[in-house]
Every structure is written in C-alpha cells, then in structure tokens.
Amino acid sequence: MHRKWLALLLTLLLAVPLLAGCKGEEQPGSNSAVSETSGGPTYETTPPRYDGNANILDTLPEGHYGGKDFAISVYDGHYYQFDAERPNGDLINDTLYNWMDKIEGRYDVVLDVRKSGDWGSYYGNITTEILAGLDVANLYGTMAFQHYSGVINGLFQNWLDISDMIDLEAERWDQDVNNEVTYNDVLYGLTGNLGVSKLQYTMATFYNTEMMNAYGYTTDRLVQLVDDGDWTFEAFSTVVKDIYTDLDASGTVSEGDVFGYIGCEGNSFDIWFPSFDIQITSRDVDNTITPTLYTESNATVLGMLCDFYHDNEGVRIFDVTQYSSETLFANRQAAMVSTRFYAAYTSYSDMGSEAYGILPTPKLNSEQEHYISKLNDQYTIWCVAKSLPDSERDFTAHITDALCAESSTTVYYQFYDVILKNRYSKDPDTARMVDLIMDHVSFDTAIMYGEYLDGYPYMIRELIKADSTDIASLYAGKAESIAQKLQTVYDSYKPRGAA
C-alpha cells in the first residue's frame, strides 16, 4: 500500500495533524542512533532519554531504505489494525494512516500489509510460504492461540538473536508475556503495543452504571474498593449476589431475567486462574515445562468458582451457542460481565459514554499484590520467518521496533480514547482502572499451545460448566499425552544453529 504520493499532495492542501498520544513510555533502552550512509546504517551515538513528550522515534536508530518494501503478513481478521489507505476524517482511520505514513516517510520504506488467510487457512498458507522461502514477509502477525503450529513446525526465528536494531527491553514490548514464553533464551513470538490487538483483546470487568447504582454500588464505591486493594473475589461475589430481576415475569429463574453476572464464552471462564496468579505450567530446575493444574489448592479454588457460578443467586451461565456475554450486557440482562476491551469498540459503541464502567478482574484475596488481567488468546503475536535472509534481519528488526514505538505513543492511547468514548482522557477514574488492567497482563505459555495440548488450558472452563472439581479425572486421561507434547514444545525452543 503506497501512500507517500498522497501524503505529499495533502501537505500542499491541508495539514493533517499527527494524533498525539496521551501517555509516553519510559526510557526505551540502549539502542544506538545511526546515520545514513551509502552502505546502510552505521552506529554513532547513544540516543537521548525519552521524556514522554519528545518524538519516540528520535530514540531509535536512524536509517533510510530507499523506498524498500516492508511486507507484513496478517490473519485476515487482524488486518483492521492497518486498514487505512487515506485520511478521511475518521479518528480511527486517520490515527492508523498517520502512524504508517510517519514510518514510511521517516525511514523511506513502503509498508506492504497482506491478508494471508482466514481463521482456518492462515497457518497453512504461511507454512507453505515460509518453508518454500519464496516471497517471505518481513513480519508475520499470527493469532496467539495458533502459535504452536509455527513453533512445532520450526517456522520462526528467535527474536533474541535477530538484531540489536530492536530494543526488546523497552516498555512497548510486554516484558511479562515475552518472558513467560521464552525458553533456552529463545523467543519465537513477540507481544507488545504494535497495533492495538493486545489492548482490544485484554479481558476486563464491565458494569452497567445505572443498574449498579440502583443497588447502591456507585462508581465511586467500586473504584474505592479497587484503589484500596479490596476488589477481591469475595467482594465481587457479594456485589453480584443480590442483583436479580424476574424480567420475563415467569416466576422462576430463566434466561429472560436480569442477573448480576453472567458467563457465556469460554474465555469468560478462563480469566480466573490467571487473575488469581495461578499458573498452569511451571519451569523445573532444568527449565523444562511442567503442567501444574492438578493440585489440591487448585481444586479448592475451582470449588469456589463452581459455587459462584452454580449457587450464587445473582450469577447465571448461558449457552454460548445462543447467547454472548457482550450482547446480554448491551441488552441490560447483566449488571456485570467479563469480556474483551474490544466489546467497547463494537457491541457497546451505541450504549452511551456513561452507560458502563470498567474494573479490573478481582483478585483472589487482599494478600494478592496486583490485579492481573487475562489476555484473550486471539490477539496478534509477531514473528519472523526462519527463511528470512540474514541480510534482511537488521532492516526487519529496525522497522518492527519503529512501528511498535510509534504505535505505543500515537496509536495505542488514541484507541483508549476511541474505545472508551474519550473517557480515558477526561475521566481520571476510568483512566486509572484501564491502566491497572493493562499494567499486569497474564498469558500462560500453555495458552499458545492449547489446541496442541489436547485442550489442557481449557480444562478449568469445562469443569466450571460441569460444576465439578474433579481435576484428577479430567486430567488423568490426557496426562501422558500432555507431558509428551509439552516436551516437544520445549524441544522446539533451540538456540540459532543448535542441532
């Protein structure tokens, strides 16, 4: 998609302002600045510290690439993160356009973003492409829950060994998630603020302000619980317990009624163990991956969750084939739901800016230090093909980091405001809640390999729906296969050049 000719024309006709972000990053690290030479970039000096107001690209290496294409391959459903061919006055479109246009202009590159297949065909398409080594993209944006396919089949390079033209220690790259999926100093899939899917696919607690006010739970009261560290699962259970209305006047609890909290999609049940800081895999002394779901303490937590979903009068499980949490909340049949930020951008866009509030997922108890957010497994994870020529590695790393750096300061927080109807910039309580949600995002290694691991990370959702704490029985039939496949996953993480 070539936009430089249009940008030059527009500068003669009107000023298209860069949409500045409302929050900066900390110092992005120790990359060196470079200068343009006929032979490519060469290192010169250490960049200035980023102060939150300066242009963050000034802290990255310089470089001009003579109009060279930078190809990005994405799953069709994630193309929206780059879908802006020209300015049209729409805030989302123009934010994306300005982001990409700035990268193209500063580094003299052309961003070529390709749709490479739908949900079912993407990995097959890129596997053929990468193994053949023909027309390989510089960057692949895959769905996180399918990442196992690329790792097991040896499709990707190690980000930690690609180039020093990318600062993987910068705040824009998610240190917690990336560290979680690094083994043997190998990281195949990179998570960060490049694009907006990480924000949009993070799970949060939405509440209907009018309904909660009617039960005495004002926004001030709920926010105070969070700020005091008392927004625990017990407090949450108490809040939703008494919220019930026989809306269809059937005289019995039915799916036409109003509830304090509902669950439908599998991801709405998957949030609890991550948010309670309970990992379902661990690393042994020798750094191998071990399943840790089956423990007595986890069974106790599971029993608490089953009691909540099946015995709490204000809680209801709905059939996912007929309902969605987002639709039920938008229809005022639920005072609270757990769903993606993406819902605010889609399902809740017509509700009005003050119709709902946002809170973190509750902690297990007040002793837990942080509020932890589950990252939905459909977000974009960024990879580099193993067949990308070595001569392309510095270029790929440089432009990838620049895209992420600019996205983190001019795109990411614009989407905060777009998604939250400008409340992020004008409502300090909402801003603080959103920051708390995004400060600690959890994504267990097993989630990226869930399908390959016989559904291991999804066992909790199945047990909750079945009102069962019998982890042992569900796990027993898969234990040997899971252990073997986890070992295969671990064996796939080999340093560059290893046999």
Distance between the termini: 40 Å
Number of helices: 20
Overall 3D geometry? globular
The proportion of strand residues reads: 5-15%
* Rg, Å, rounded: 23 Å
| Nearest-integer average pLDDT | 84
Q: Quick one: biggest sheet?
A: 6 strands, mixed
Low-confidence stretches: 1-52
Class from secondary-structure proportions: alpha/beta
Total count of strands: 16
Question: How much helical structure, as a percent, in the residues?
Answer: 25-40%
Keywords:
499 residues; alpha/beta; 6-stranded mixed beta sheet; 4-stranded mixed beta sheet; 20 helices; 16 strands; 13% strand; disordered N terminus
Description of the molecule:
The chain is globular, with a radius of gyration of 23 Å. It is of the alpha/beta class and 499 residues long. α2 runs antiparallel to α15. The chain is built from 20 helices and 16 strands. Strands 6, 7, 8, 11, 12 and 13 form a six-stranded mixed beta sheet that branches. Strands 4-3-5-15 form a four-stranded mixed beta sheet, sandwiched between helices.
